[in-house]
Amino acid sequence: MSSFLNGRLPRRATIYEVGPRDGLQNESRTIPTADKIAFIDALSETGLQAIEITSFVNPKWIPQLADASEVSRGIRRRPGLLYSALVPNRKGLDAALAAGMTEIAVFLSASETHNRKNVNKSISETLAAFEEVIEPARAEGCRVRAYVSTVYGCPYEGDVDPRKAVELTLTLRQMGVYQVSLGDTIGVANPVQVERVLDLVLAQVPPEQVALHFHDTRGAALANCLVGLSMGVTTIDSATGGLGGCPYAPGASGNLATEDIVAALHSMGIETGIDLDRLVAASQQIAAFVGHELPSKYLKAHIGARTRADTRADKGRAQQA
What is the mean pLDDT of each run of 10 residues along the chain (321 residues)? Predict the structure, then answer.
């Protein structure tokens, strides 16, 4: 791992928060619209630069995000903060534009089987469908981002040829996408594999046009991010509390937790502009809304430390009494 051992880490990284969309879409409980808005508003106060707030998909496929328009219109938009939404087709684009979105994201998979499971189309059919989304969005002044799932492995096909990531990244850039997020949808990537994929991709496109998107199924997401950062990729997708998964990737755990990556970056002197205490508060808020513990390791450590401090304080008061 020569690139990492040489220590070429950036001074600053951008965290692209995907919890309100990629996180909540996989929850069994449907979160009330008001709670989603409160969660996003809390995230807006943390110093994040980008938040993906919802998805304008058919409610039949993702009922948890059926209130996309209401959420988009209901949040308090903080000046300078980028709010985005996922869209699958022209109908979704029209709804997103009507709701005031200025950035959207399109999505497809690097493996045919996962793509068919996810969007019921082949990869080539999906790219053809993007023609009615990407250019019309840009014509309305809306930036377009893209997600490529299963870059490092597919739950149905196994290993995925790294050259597929290069091919799709180049195609999407030619179509007008400003950044391509390369996703480890089932959390199987390892640092050597990440370096191999990024070596190929970054030989064709500059690092600012690429983002990292890792799920933490096997606990390697942070290590994989460090490899990408050392190679010049400075945008990282993550979800507050480690929310998420993928309904079409059996066994996939949540996204890399935003608290975990932010705490790690800050400890290495890499700036994010994020207030970690406010981020933890937002995580605790959404944990109450979803009704279960979140997997973030930093969040668990924070709660444990606070509990121990409260216990010591209680003991001290008892002794004084």
Answer: 60 97 90 98 98 95 95 97 97 97 97 94 97 98 98 95 97 98 95 98 98 94 97 97 69 82 97 97 95 91 69 62 61
Model confidence, pTM: 0.92
Residue with tokens 């959207």: 104
Is 246 one of the annotated active-site residues of the chain?
yes
The partner residues of 214 in beta bridges, in order of sequence, read: 184
**Active-site annotation holder among 142, 154, 225, 246:** 246
What is the C-alpha to C-alpha distance for residues 197 and 165, in angstroms, rounded to an integer? Answer: 7
Record the tokens describing residue 6, joined without a space: 């040489």
CA distance 48 to 83: 10
Strand partners, 125: none
Distance CA 242, CA 286 (A): 11
Q: Which of 71, 8, 22, 9 lies closest to 215, judged by CA?
A: 22
Domains of the chain (ranges; CATH) run 2-320 (3.20.20.70)
